[in-house]
């Protein structure tokens, strides 16, 4: 017998594993083979040391203390099991254990001193209080006998019922020996009895031997217990008590004055009149006269044990004692399926406890629901519109929107549309578009993936990549969607985007669609940008190396549509490399206008284009067609062919418009001086506009887009807009087409101040500029004074 | 005889090909079958637009094999990546050390290992007009799909891939001529948004015509169909509004809705029970947490679903919309021109009143052979959009020849060019669709969608068959479109045929024959439904009848 504990427990206490028990534990056997040891462990085996010499002693101290972790329940009894026990025989003359003996010190009940052969014997020791010590003392005299012993020591907690399972009674107290046997048969030996000749009785024995009443048949308890002498095979005598020479029975107080076995009211079942209490002599017989051995029975008084005991165990006190450690041990011994089921139950309980309390929707009756449905009045689909809004009555252009434009029936010089290079009137573009219609028709009737890729598209992509001296280009069928699709193709939830406050609306929509964390820096303010970058890198540093690398993007415009400013690319590239941020540049305006060959912002600053991760451009301004494009390395650009929503899920650009764009690139490559011309016009326009007194000029002198704001703002956004609109209308009447930049006031992230947006056109001459300035001055005067 | 006052009772397609139901839009008028019949008789002759919608279920064994197929594809990919991990790899980017990776690993895994080996099935370049036939520019790959090079040979194929429903993708004829003329007359680029100086007379003309065509008070047009959805939905709904959207709605609608900030709930594809449940819950429960009533509810559906081939159950949606006071956004990208006896989309197909659809949206890319999109509806709606639409305010106006192409083709469809060419094309398309679909069904192929829909998806299921079908069909001179995950559900890879009015019966027979061979070769004939018996006679069944209104 061992303790079922985790193997680590067993090792810690110096035990030895005797096989597994339960799912995670081992049967731990703890054996002491030394003298003078102390122990506290249940199921300890005390064995003789390898050699036991004469005239020595050997002891074991067993401490009971229920504050110890291994004795969590108060211990009331200790059972000694003599697995084997052989020491010297008692003095043949006196039967006293003079030479060798075992003495138990510390028990409440009287424990006799024993010696000789006591294999398979046992003893119950009563513990005086929960805290005590037992001393088991072996004393060895002078003898040649080989002393061996192996004594199991087990602890019986107070109130334990397993010894009296069927009787529901507490462990009988005061019994040195207690026999429990299934079916209720067995043999009882006195100490040092052995099937051998000679006098083996020990002196000074005075102890009780108790028997548990067992259920024997039909779940009935026994009504009596009978004792019969065993038949010996050797020289031994199965019953011999006292120094009487004959082998006949003796009984009664007179006949057995000193040594006897007491069987209260013992009787012979065959001769019920033979009744006696004390038995001694050479045979067991309750008859009045000496006789041979006979069966002696004892009637179990039905009330002696059962009725006086409480009928039920005190369950509540048991529950208290069933503490954590016990639970833990039980857990270890439980079979696996049990653990799984309990685990599932625990998960279920945890789920019940932790799940979000579901808001119980009020259960409404059908009628209540119908009422709600009847009562609900939605807002109108769209709110009422202001009938005077300028967008409802836009200027209507007849004919081409070229350098001159016919607006509302009046020819005007056009400073309003983004026809920077004046290619709207380019005959070659129109010819190539018409040639293309003759071959391919107008529409492509499908997205790029599904037979919407016409060789013209591929040519345009190749040409754009070559023009920009980058690896790959990709075209979209709409300029706005290019920007708004390209950004979210890369930037996703969890990424960080740094963007300029002055970004145009397409960029804003792209940022919004990406669902990334967008941080705006002040327009063209590199200090502010660096501050944001620094804050982000500090945050990443804090997260340490374990943090996932955060994708960071920086989105700027080459020339800002909303202000006409040029971005400080050299500083931006420096910051971008320092903080490892990917740089996306919207070159819608700068492509085809800045740089000696119109290659945009990179050429303008002389910075290699491969510093920029993605260049996004438009085919709707410098190249007056429709569509947009992205250009960069294949690694970056190719991704949009599957992930750019506006690329994948939209019909491709009508081939004729792509063909026109190719023709425009031809012209641009063929005649690079046009960029010089444009730059001249830009600068001249800039200096001319700066002479206006009532309007304040914004924007870079090299940028083709200029913004004029009221020099003296009225302080009211709408009123400023109104005044500027009047100036535009006035100019229109006088033959100059200028417009107020249109914004959606509610939707803009940072609503720019109202302004007249003027656009430089390569074809403008000095005269044109003079005329424009004159008209603007006149209109201002007419409106503002 | 006027039937336009309300969308009166019509036989609408039964769901799942099992049942045909009578739908009443105005339930108060017709509450049971009896009165419905009376009402129906009262209107006049029934129109034969009761195409059956069918979505045959995947056989269990096929579904298992499909999952297994994907498993194998993914497994091979992982093994390959594992082996490649021993090869010292170069950073694909120069000068970008220390940058966070640009792409997420699964995304690029899928692209590298699943898409790339069969990349040749998409983006096939053409070098002709995408009419009834097209000319493919042949290309080969020597590195398993990483790069392609042109062979300078050309293959002529029957075009079953383009959305050229009415055959207006033409390089000659009145439309092309007019577009050429406009190019010279008005130029190509406008270089300005509509709100600034980009509004031309031709735009106004186009918008008036579109409004007349779809039967709405006013219309507004935009330069790109995708942008029409993506840039206008945010001006129609916003936070506190609920959008109930079909699960198979197009990416542009989803993007637009996402940008709008409105709450989006999805109902099962074309499933009216699911839609009603969502509507009812929305009206009864109000907004989550606050229980405040929704500001407004918008139902967003498409006329014809381009991957399912199904037609929206418009009459019932209109009935539900009225019952629950929701608004309806109908994207007719694939249905305008392609459906209805007068080619005016799903509204015309069911004979509904266009005024019952609050927002009629459509594109010009498909049936009109041009580009761009429109939104039509009440004057108030269009005015609101003219002021608030992102596209109208910021995006460049439509190119004049593109607008001209729409005007020309629309006039032809309306018969205002003085010929019956438009009517001929409409009849041809309708005959072609029904003939082609029935023939494919007869072959035992699983064909999804409505009998009248010109979009014909044939189910392939297994991933390996996506490329195989596409390649085999090209070998036989038929250009079709094959799609799989993520464009479809993972088990529902399909090959799609788009029928055009420019297809002749002989062309269709060629495609059917090719599909028969490929179906046997690749074991595509999964259908367990009883096949239509007897010859399918071209053009015999149910001609769309000329309406008596106009």
UniProtKB/TrEMBL annotation, chain A:
It comes from the Eukaryota. Residues 172-297 form the CUB domain. Its EC number is 2.3.1.50. Residues 411-694 form the Aminotransferase class I/classII large domain. Pathway: Sphingolipid metabolism; Lipid metabolism; sphingolipid metabolism. Pfam families: Aminotran_1_2 (PF00155), CUB_animal (PF26080). Its cofactor is pyridoxal 5'-phosphate. It is an enzyme of class 2 (transferase). Belongs to the class-II pyridoxal-phosphate-dependent aminotransferase family. This is Serine palmitoyltransferase 1. It comes from Daphnia magna.
From TrEMBL, chain B:
Pfam families: Aminotran_1_2 (PF00155). PROSITE patterns: AA_TRANSFER_CLASS_2 (PS00599). It comes from Daphnia magna. This is serine C-palmitoyltransferase. The chain crosses the membrane at residues 58-79. Residues 156-514 form the Aminotransferase class I/classII large domain. It is an enzyme of class 2 (transferase). Belongs to the class-II pyridoxal-phosphate-dependent aminotransferase family. Its cofactor is pyridoxal 5'-phosphate. Its EC number is 2.3.1.50. Keywords: Acyltransferase, Membrane, Pyridoxal phosphate, Transferase, Transmembrane, Transmembrane helix. It catalyses: L-serine + hexadecanoyl-CoA + H(+) = 3-oxosphinganine + CO2 + CoA. InterPro entries: Aminotrans_II_pyridoxalP_BS (IPR001917), Aminotransferase_I/II_large (IPR004839), AON_synthase_class-II (IPR050087), PyrdxlP-dep_Trfase (IPR015424), PyrdxlP-dep_Trfase_major (IPR015421), PyrdxlP-dep_Trfase_small (IPR015422).
